[in-house]
């Protein structure tokens, strides 16, 4: 079963949505609901088939809010998967920026939109309103549509279909694993075996640093950096290895790896009946997770930055933020390795795909992750636009209608003005 928008849902779910996110006005529009139903008809039918097989009886709710996420929840004794169409739009747009080689200027403009929505959810209204206005002022300068026309493949649309089904299947896996049955135990054991292997890789990296210090074949500048930072590099590797060991004893973190794995298993029949090859499906899944990681790391920075007073903020990455990055990095490599094993199998074919995937992972850090992080860092810590931010917020607050509040202003700027790029 499924529904979209705010029509036809139970009072309990409506209350949950209104307490956890800002539902956007389009959710109440019939044409918008009809289009949402059309877009998600096939993914929902496939997920209903999987849900029936596991007897999870999951109600799938497609919403449109300021929350860039998909989640499995149990409300009123019933299982629900709440998937935000806004997340799908963001992933599709990031696909277009990444796959068609949009300019850095375009990526920075869109990074303002992503960060504005995230900042508003964590109460950074000065920064969020300023960033939303930057996006609206500059969005007509974005070149992704021209780049897409030059490419002509529409590969982003093929990828987003697989990507959103992967996300939905991941969330459904949380409902499957509520039982903690034999199926979960077997997958958990497989994940733990992979984690033990991954820890050895981290430990070998630590040993590699010590070797590289005396390796005359690498560029002197790189060797000097390793030598000057050897202690911190080794210490960081030790922290990462210890944290990976800790994941094996923390059910909630371990379950994320298990859900990634089961989602890929359930995705295979869909891939087989689609027009994508296994190799292209792997790329779509990897890119999807890279996009999600970029969004989540921005969310984490905002959630950990507790200082709302700009003058007292420090642009420092603390241990907790590093551990989150380690967690997502480990999940990325687990997804990659399991995709190779489950979707390809042949070592020669794996090597060919691995070269492409390695390039994708490297390029994504430069093309998507870095612009999002740089824009967020500038908004939170750079004094350059601080006075302009304060003036913009003060003007809005002075002229704001009764009953309105800053979070709605951000969403109004981002979503109420007609936009043709998504």
Would you kindly provide a written description of the structure presented here, covering whatever features stand out?
By secondary structure, this protein is mostly helical. The chain has a domain of 238 residues. The chain contains 16 helices and 4 strands. Helix 5 packs across helix 15 and helix 13 runs antiparallel to helix 14. The longest helix is centred in the C-terminal third of the chain and has 35 residues. The radius of gyration is 22 Å and the shape is globular. The protein starts with a strand and ends in a 6-residue tail after the last helix. The mean pLDDT is 88.
Judging from the principal axes of the Cα atoms, what is the shape? globular
Summarize the helix and strand pattern as letters.
EHHEEEHHHHHHHHHHHHHH
- Beta-strand percentage? under 5%
Q: Return Rg in Å.
A: 22 Å
Q: Number of helical runs?
A: 16
Largest sheet, described in full?
4 strands, mixed
User: Helix/strand/pairing class, anyone?
Assistant: mainly alpha
Which residues sit in consecutive blocks of at least 5 with pLDDT less than 50?
Answer: none
Average pLDDT for all residues:
88
- Number of beta-strand segments: 4
Strand order of the largest sheet: 1-2-4-3
């Amino acid at each position: 079963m499924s529904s979209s928008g705010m029509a036809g849902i139970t009072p309990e779910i409506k209350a949950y949505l209104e307490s956890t996110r800002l539902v956007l006005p389009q959710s109440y529009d019939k044409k918008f609901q009809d289009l949402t139903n059309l877009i998600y008809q096939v993914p929902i039918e496939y997920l209903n088939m999987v849900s029936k097989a596991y007897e999870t009886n999951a109600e799938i709710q497609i919403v449109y809010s300021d929350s860039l996420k998909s989640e499995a929840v149990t409300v009123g004794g019933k299982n629900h998967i709440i998937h935000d169409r806004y997340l799908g739009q963001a992933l599709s747009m990031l696909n277009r920026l990444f796959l068609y080689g949009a300019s850095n200027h375009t990526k920075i403009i869109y990074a303002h939109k992503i960060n504005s929505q995230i900042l508003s959810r964590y109460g950074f209204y000065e920064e969020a309103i300023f960033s939303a206005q930057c996006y609206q002022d500059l969005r007509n300068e974005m070149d992704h549509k021209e780049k897409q026309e030059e490419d002509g493949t529409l590969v982003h649309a093929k990828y987003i279909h697989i990507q959103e089904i992967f996300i939905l299947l991941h969330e459904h896996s949380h409902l499957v694993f509520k039982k903690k049955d034999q199926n979960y135990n077997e997958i958990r054991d497989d994940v733990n075996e992979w984690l033990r292997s991954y820890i050895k890789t981290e430990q070998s990296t630590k040993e590699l640093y010590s070797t590289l210090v005396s390796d005359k074949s690498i560029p002197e500048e790189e060797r000097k950096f390793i030598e000057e930072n050897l202690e911190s590099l080794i210490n960081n590797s030790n922290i990462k290895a210890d944290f990976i060991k800790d994941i094996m004893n923390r059910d909630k973190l371990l379950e994320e790896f298990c859900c990634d794995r089961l989602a890929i298993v359930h995705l295979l029949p869909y891939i087989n009946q689609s027009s994508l090859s296994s190799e292209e499906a792997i790329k779509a899944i990897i890119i999807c997770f890279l996009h999600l990681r970029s969004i989540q790391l921005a969310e984490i920075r905002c959630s950990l930055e507790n200082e709302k007073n700009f003058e007292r903020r420090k642009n420092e990455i603390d241990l907790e933020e590093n551990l989150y990055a380690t967690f997502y990095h480990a999940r990325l490599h687990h997804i990659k390795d399991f995709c190779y094993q489950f979707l390809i199998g042949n070592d020669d074919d794996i090597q060919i795909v691995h070269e492409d995937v390695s390039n994708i992972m490297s390029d994504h850090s430069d093309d998507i992750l870095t612009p999002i992080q740089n824009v967020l860092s500038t908004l939170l810590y750079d004094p350059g636009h601080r006075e302009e931010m304060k003036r913009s917020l003060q003007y809005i607050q002075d002229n704001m209608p009764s009953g309105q509040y800053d979070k709605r202003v951000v969403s109004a700027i981002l979503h109420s003005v007609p936009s043709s790029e998504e």
